[in-house]
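Session log. Operator J.P. requested a structure for one protein chain; no other inputs attached. Running the standard single-chain path with token output.
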Amino acid sequence: QMKISSTESNFIGAAGNLGMYASGIPLGLLTDARGPRLTTFLGAITLGIGYYPIYLAYVKGPGSMAIIFLSFFAFLTGFGSCSAFSASIKTSASNFPDHRGTATAFPLAAFGLSAFFWSTEDDDALSDVALESPHPDVRGLAMLPKIEFWQLFLTMALLSGIGLMTINNIGNSFIQQRQVMHVSILSFGNFIGRLSSGIGSDLLVKKLNMSRFWCLFISAFVFTITQLAGSAISNPHQLAIVSGFTGIAYGFLFGVFPSLVAHTFGIGGLSQNWGVMTLAPVLSGNVFNLLYGSIYDRHSIVEPNGDRDCPDGLACYQAAYYTTFLSGVAGVVVCLWSILHERRIHGAMHKKVEHDRLA
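Structure written below.
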């Protein structure tokens, strides 16, 4: 509709991602300090200010608004989403500290499902958190020396970039009319993944005495296999496989991540700590998006009516999927490292508790 190149489209998408993820720290600090009501209101206002000009530009057609302004308004939509998202996660985790995975799964799942529709603390609870967490109340920059921070940050960076590249570019290499269908499939998979991951992580911990990191391992494994499929698929009817499994993997990633952050660093500073973690997709998401756009534009041609078409088949995007495949493999390795590290930490903690009891 707007007759813009894949690189320009990804630049606008990168601005939206920047608003969504780079604003996580200040909005997290604001939520922790002032509560969720203010950030909910702020989110509603900035979403309206961001989306309405984009709607007007879409209606007026090509050339009606400069790319820089489209990017700015996309940034505002991301900022608004992050603001409301931060408020919902803080509210859920604080009200249900004994079932954080399940409690945060529902707003996370609703967030993941939204594209489907729009395309078509008490003392006992806090003491439990303190006993469960390796670092009971660590916030902001104090996380940086902790190895657990870098495990979580690396996992988020390696895996979220894969998901964001697919989400922002789904359908670019095929018939544009199919995009709505694929966005819906991806969104529904995202919803299922978030709900399953959040609830499943609670079951893993409480019933099976296993680590929540296994949900991240599932995400990394599915992402990795899906990238191989994406690099080989040229039939547009088979693209639904990539859309669906990318949505599920992305959902598993974000469905369990807030509860992992709360488990590792405590619930007191959850919003700001989550904000720090959301810097990871800013880095990897923008790199992968711009890489995809550059590869696609290098193989595409501009038709007389202004539309872009890529006649080179798999070469239009295959190199991008090979890159994200390597990112997925690295994500699997980091997840296994995190599981082994957590097992050692918790083993040492339990031995200390047992020793203190006997003493």
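Operator note: Residues 97-358 form a domain with the Growth Hormone; Chain: A; fold (CATH 1.20.1250.20).
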